[in-house]
Design a protein that fits this description.
Blueprint (H helix, E strand, L loop, with lengths): L1 H22 L1 H11 L13 H6 L6 H14 L5 E5 L8 H14 L2 H15 L2 E8 L4 E7 L4 E3 L11 E9 H9 L23 H6 L1 H4 L4 E9 L4 E6 L4 E7 L5 E4 L13 H4 L1 H20 L4 E3 L6 H9 L13 H4 L6 E3 L7 H17 L1 H7 L8 H12 L3 H25 L4 E4 L6 E4 L1 H4 L4 E5 L9 H17 L5 H11 L10 H19 L4 H22 L23 E2 L1
Parallel strand pairs: 2-15
Antiparallel strand pairs: 1-14, 2-3, 2-9, 4-5, 5-6, 6-7, 7-8, 10-11, 12-13
Helix pairs in contact: 4-6, 4-15, 11-14, 14-15, 19-20, 21-22
């Protein structure tokens, strides 16, 4: 059975590597090269020289698309909100939100999500990997290179993938440490030798620039295989044909998303790769236009038979008012200097080239919604109506892409919370979301909490102070007078809408006591004229204050909810870091 499994893994790895190198590697390398601005493959060649390189020109549409994707789809900081799945989990939701803010902040999710999003723009897929660190006692989230992860290509949706296969390149010292700790076991451990970094995982620039640095270390490629049908995870070393680790799994660590569906399988579709031909055409035409522009710089021809270049150089380099001696061939003819020089023909800038460049850029915007958004400019918009129209026009084609990214981040949050419910050993003190107070989260306090996570969408329009101020002025009188509106919640929304923190609000208990104290002071001032009425009003105020305190005080602790699985069955085992 073990030999059959190893033979299956060996064949599976060979087939996936062959498919990747034939169908995806060239397009991945080309998109990444264009993103970095390396458009001309022979730019560094010696036969071109500096003068040839100076005539090259480019306009980086690929970088503009990737940069627009990060700013338009991701927002300033990824945040998830917990939605309770039963009444017993309602009270724990604020603490869970604070805990997930701590998890995302400790994992630098803004930076990692931007990296995964750029991978999706350039290389079809963005991939997160969620595991558990026993050293830091918290979930850890990494971004996996799309070139290093293979999976079941017979399904059309990522949730139906039956197996995952990741090439993990680890230093030889780390591999030996896992062997010595007893984590890796096999009869063929003696056949495993350190090797160079796999060349198929590197593009051309990495091979040339960092190859010497990578070769300073010794590496071992370990293939992590997750089988959802048998619910097992295996670590396989291909050079020794040995399975060095095997365990049961209860969740899959990968959260993969694509901005566009391929229409065939779940490999995804990169719209950047659809406009690479337009990008190359624009750069070629811009290089020709640059050469034409250089040729339009005035140049002067002279009659070398009547005056030497040395005499002309002396005339040009001499100071103002200096006397310059020349030895012409024909002194009489030299008396009229205008006859020595001739105008050089100058080319005209072809209008058709400019129009074709604009057409290629329009074609790129027509194909890619991100290219269209990159070209969009918002000028003079101040009112809420104008901003709403512009915002809806820019987001109508981006909504699906944003939803795919949000689904992936929500899946990361669910897996991180699931692992915390299983393996967290120390209590975490977190700030309760939306309040001033702090709370302690332990494995016991969240063990029975059932929540779903939803991304808090970033809306730039709602962050525009002029728009918020105008909307507030128009709606505030009606909202304040309505008996169905909670004035405190309205105040929180307004404060958050103009970019301030909710921490500027006093807690409800302090606000009630402050209002009661102000009312008591007014009654004491009025009591100078009517002491009996002031005394009665003071008693009523104290009673109202006591009632507010009773309403604010928490009630009895809710009954514990029955344990329930957070994720669907058939996931993968946690990836622990020693």
């Amino acid at each position: 059975m073990v030999a059959e499994t190893m033979d299956k893994l060996n064949q599976l790895i060979d087939k996936h590597l062959s498919f990747y190198q034939k169908n995806e590697k060239k397009s991945f390398d080309r998109a990444r090269r264009f993103y970095r601005g390396d458009f001309f493959s022979n730019k560094g060649a010696s036969d071109l020289g500096d003068s040839g390189n100076s005539l090259l020109s480019s306009k980086n549409l690929v970088y503009a698309i990737a940069d627009t994707a990060v700013s338009a789809l991701l927002g300033p900081n990824p945040v998830v909100a917990a939605n309770p799945r039963n009444p017993d989990s309602e009270d724990a939701a604020p603490a869970v939100n604070g805990f997930m803010e701590y998890v995302f902040h400790s994992n630098k999710m803004r930076r990692r999500a931007a990296t995964a999003l750029i991978d999706a723009v350039l290389c079809k897929r963005g991939i997160f990997k969620t595991g558990w660190s026993t050293v830091e006692d918290r979930p850890v989230v990494k971004v996996v290179d799309p070139s290093a992860l293979f999976f079941d290509m017979t399904v059309r949706d990522v949730d139906d993938v039956r197996y995952w296969l990741e090439a993990t390149v680890m230093p030889w010292s780390e591999f030996k440490a896992r062997v010595q700790s007893g984590r890796y076991k096999s009869e063929k451990l003696g056949d495993i030798r350190p090797d160079r970094y796999p060349s198929w995982m590197l593009d051309r620039s990495q091979k040339g620039q960092t190859n010497t640095v990578r070769d300073s270390f010794q590496w071992v490629t370990v293939w992590e295989y997750y089988d959802r049908q048998r619910n097992i995870v295996q670590h396989y070393v291909k050079q020794a044909d040995a399975v060095v680790f095997e365990d049961k799994i209860d969740y899959i660590p990968y959260s993969m998303f694509s901005l566009n569906h391929s229409g065939v399988d779940c490999l995804g579709l990169s719209e950047v790769q659809l406009i690479l031909d337009q990008q190359q055409t624009v750069n070629d035409l811009l290089s020709h236009m640059k050469q034409i522009t250089y040729l339009m710089i005035p140049r002067i021809l002279y009659d070398a038979g009547r005056i030497t270049e040395e005499d002309l150089n002396k005339a040009v380099e001499s100071s103002t008012g200096a006397f310059i001696g020349v030895a012409p061939e024909n002194s009489e003819a030299l008396r009229n200097l205008a006859t020595l020089f001739y105008p050089m023909p100058m080319p005209d800038s072809p209008q058709g080239v400019k129009e074709f460049i604009a057409r290629q850029e329009d074609d790129a915007a027509f194909i890619s919604a991100l290219a269209e958004a990159a070209r969009g400019q918002v000028t003079g918009a101040r009112t809420a109506t104008e901003m709403a129209i512009i915002d809806s026009q820019m987001r109508n084609r981006l909504a699906t892409r944003e939803g795919h990214l949000n689904d992936s981040l929500q899946d990361v949050a669910a897996k991180a919370f699931y692992l915390s419910k299983l393996y967290m050993s120390e209590a975490k003190t977190v700030r309760v979301s939306g309040e001033r107070r702090w709370d302690t989260v332990t494995i016991d306090s969240i063990a029975d909490v059932l929540v779903d996570f939803e991304m808090t969408t970033h809306h730039p329009m709602q962050r525009n102070p002029a728009v918020v101020l105008e909307s507030m002025i128009q709606m505030l009188p009606m909202l304040v007078q309505s008996p169905h509106i909670d004035v405190r919640q309205l105040t929180e929304e307004l404060i958050e809408g103009i970019g301030l923190s909710k921490n500027v609000l006093m807690p409800p208990k302090d606000a009630a006591m402050s209002a009661a104290a102000a009312q008591q002071q007014e009654l004491m001032i009025a009591g100078a004229q009517s002491p009996d009425g002031a005394s009665q009003a003071l008693t009523d105020t104290q009673q109202a204050l006591d009632e507010n305190v009773v309403e604010i005080a928490p009630g009895a602790a809710p009954a514990e909810a029955a344990p329930e699985e957070v994720l669907a069955a058939g996931g993968g085992a946690p990836i622990r870091q020693q």
